[in-house]
Protein 1
Amino acid sequence: MNAATQRLTILLVEDEPADAHLVKTALSENHILADLRHVVDGRDALEYLRRQGPRFAGAPRPDLILLDLNMPRMDGRECLSALKQDPHLSDIPVVVLTTSEVERDVLASYTLGAAGFITKPMDVLKFMAAIRDLGVYWFDLVRLPRQE
Amino acid sequence: MTLTMNDKPNLRVLIVEDEPGDARLMQLALRKCGFAIEMSVAGDGVDALRMLRREGERYRLAPRPDLILLDLKMPGQSGLGFLEAVKQDECLRAIPVVIVTTSMLDADVLASYRAGAAGYVPKSTDINEFIAAINILGQYWFRLARLPLNRD
């Protein structure tokens, strides 16, 4: 529904190049026509979202953020907390996509305002299916906020 | 503690919906999709908050839900007011709240996400479309995502 009317932008915050590549592949394999932008840690993500510096001037505002938890410089928890406290960014849904299976991380992520906590499947086919189900929910089913 | 798919306890869903017919339809759709969940219904936001906070004898032993499905248009406290109250309550804020509504106003969508909604699902008047939508919702929240388990 959404995807047919407009091309959506996803910001992927992920320090592992292999995992970033897998997300990109999964999106295209599942025919999710999204403009995927990629940054490698929480600090870069906040700079991207706030369009700070020449690298991110004119960066498109994402419709959805996929956030890894364990990253150098600024981890996902700190990044999630900062962007949910920013009135210009707090409406963007953030889905945590991580290798963590720790119950404490799940609770902390939702407490900070995550709109989902997905443990990355180790199996590639399961990983593809997970991105497909994520895409169907966020891009086919739900309405996303639109900034006027 | 790590729970796998197989030893996951039944998930609990709270439906906050003032129209008894719509609440029944939601329960029917969730059951039809075959999700192993327990459901409870609150008719408005005030009652739902009492249930979540276990206020009064009636709700003394009310189980805490893992997910809340919320109608926006309700009498008394609006759905948005309820959402804000949940997200401002330290004991409740981790519970994801998904809006399921007939309202298509961009302002309602934006206000819901700002208040902390974890999705905004348009409610179809076509029964089959509605069931298909609830199936996608369930696949995401009950099969794909891990929910915070409030087992207190």
Protein 2
Amino acid sequence: MPGGDFHPLFFAIVAAWILVAGIGVVTSRSVVRAAVSMVACFLGVAFAFALMNSALLAIIQILIYVGAISVVIIFGIMLTETQGGPTSKFFNRQAIFVAPIAVAAAILIAVVLLSSDLLDAGEKALNPGLRGTARLLFNEYVFPFELVSLVLLAAMIGAIVLARKDEDR
Amino acid sequence: MEAVVALIPLLPLAGFIVTLVLGKWYLRGRADVLPVLMSTASWVLSMYVFVEVLRHPHEAFEWDAFTWIASGALDTTWGFYVDPLAAVMLLVVSTIGMLVHYYSIGYMKGDEGYYRFFAYLNLFMFAMFILVMANNYLLMFLAWEGVGLCSYLLIGFWFRKKSASQAGKKAFLVNRVGDFGFTLGMLLMFLTFGSVQFTQVFPQAGAAAPAALLGICLLLFMGAVGKSAQFPLHVWLPDAMEGPTPVSALIHAATMVNAGVYMVARSFPLYVDSQTAMYVVMGLGTFTAIYAALIALTQNDIKRVIAYSTVSSLGFMFMALGSGAWVAGIFYLLAHGFFKGLLFLGAGSVMHAMSGEQDMRNMGGLRKRLPITYWTMMVAALAMVGIFPFAGFWAKDEIIGYQFANGYYAVWIVGIITAFITGVYMFRLMFMTFHGRSRASDEVRAHIHESPRIMTVPLILLAIPAALVGVVAGWPPESGWIHTFMESVFLHLESEEFGVTAFFLLLVSLAVGVAGIVVAWYLYLRRPEVPGRLATRFPWAYRASFNKFYMDEVYERVVIRPLIATAAWLWRFVDVRVIDGAVNGVAWLWGRLGRALRPLQTGRAQSYALAVLVGVVVLIVVLRIF
Amino acid sequence: MNPVEWYFLLAALLFCIGAFGVLARRNLIIIVMSLELMLNAVNIALVAAANFIPAAAGKGTLFVLFVITIAAAEVTVGLAIIIANYRRRRSVHADRYDEMKG
């Protein structure tokens, strides 16, 4: 396991980072601040992946999430900037009900996850490396792989059409 | 024989259907042809049947045409039972029915409902024939209702006149009360005997429990009280005079009202074993006879006098049946049909001549101008009062005499008094209408003319049996032709010998009738101012009689107003508050519920998503626990 | 406690934080961001499973790959929608989008 005996410590740091950043996204007044928190969170997740012996995914996470998705979101913020900056009342009316429900949900999921029988969970790192993943991707799972590329195509075209300015015919 | 018996009612039925369907547009003025033809054909066939029965008076002709209801224990058929009693009824119904059809050609001429009238007449003939020939109570009841329907249709024939349509309704409703009793009686009969067929019920009559038998007899009699207009269900008959006079003659004198008498006579085996029931029949009949006679004394409408006279005569018939003089009762029914029918048709002729006038106070002196009408009505009136040798004498006086001979002295006295009163009111009618000076207006007087032949010929034809049927059928008294003819129907009756007592009794009845005529002559011809003075001397008596002893008012107070009040209460409370309240309440409830739940639909996706999350949490909890 | 379980706990907490954000914030963009948080939480859980549970060894990784890809597509389309609606309504306030009210 990466980090060897210090694995638990590293895990604790990374976990704290992720959670704090997440709370930052959800509770910040300003959209921009939320965006920054989100990027931090993504970085933390990348580290978590790395900690789990999945370097490939860590890189991909940074490339796509931090590099692409965050940029798209920031573009979105830019294009929909409303006047007047951070406003009060950024939680809506039902927030009071959401909080306890969310907490309850968290507890429940944790309980369920922790009390279920995890098949042969061991301590060894089992993630295959780049080679193993590539082998899987292009042999058994080549069909979903191609389908996903279709989905991406459709999404691109859809986004372009949706965001187009109404032109005069 | 089967074919003949079946055709007798079927021909008028066909006449009814064709005339009703085609009458309005195609037949119009010719609408009388087919119905009259049908009634004549039925008469011919009825005469044939009558002759057949004459030849075999001790065997009844029975024929089950087809099964009507076969359900569980109930098995009734459309069947016929023709014995001497049915044959006599056939004679009366077919003869008078046919003559009324011919008479109506003249009387109803020009009426806009011409085709309807004849169609209904034929329908009535159909129902009446079925009634008298049915071989079970259920079929008889069906026909019973059928004649009631025709009565309603024909009483309210001039339906645009409010009083006429109301009279029709009154007849139907009062009849219904009686029919209720009839139905209960049939139910009880079915429970007791397991059948309603004559041939199955009558043999078992002796073995039935007395209480059950009494119940059956009384309930059936209730139906007869309604149909035959006995007290207290008599109130519809005077109002029924709103209908055209031929209707009054046929239905309310000669045929339909006799259905009750026929039914009781037919149920002879049941009544004979229940002495109490017979006392009830006799008592009610006697009371009705004198009650109606007293009312007839003061009425001014010519048709009303005859109507109350009919009620009184029917009372006499029940008096006869109830006291055990079965044959005498049927004999009187036979004679009565002829002379009462004749009286009505004659009255119709008078009204026709007087341009529709019905009030006798505006008549008078018609004797010279309407000779045929006058003489035929005189025959009928004499028969009615029971004067020798006309029909009524033999039958009626036999009934009265029988009471005395069997120890019913009180009944005998009432009968004698009633016979006296009958003489008075009957000849009051004759004298006021035909004698003396004419009290009509000049305009009416100018139009007075004898009726056309199509109307007077039936009058003459009816006068013959009204005069002679008594002698032909009833001589010698107590053992005449009719007595032997009916032997098989009314079994185990002793025919009494005609002795000195009987002869003396006949004389008394005759004397009483003559006395009545004399009194009428004195009061209305000799000293016409006397009735007025008597009325002022005894106002309460006069008013009681004139107002029919306030029977209608009693009904109004006791029955109608409480019913209407109850209905109003039910409407206000049950219908408006409870039922409408419940229905509207449910609607209101859902509305409130909807309005209460509406805030859930916020239109915002986040609310819905929250709901999803809550649902997931709940689901997990539930799955976890179980 | 197994390391798997730590990661799972982390994933659960992050997921619920994200859920709170989706349900409780008014700004549409922040809602989208919270949605991404939720997706990331799922990814963590999947990778943890792939790492520690033999039966899910290679497949977990692949699954995450696909999730990331689709998440990217989804963000794109989602923001395109927001921008298109912003043009009409001049607002990214979630409360304003309630035409289906009642």
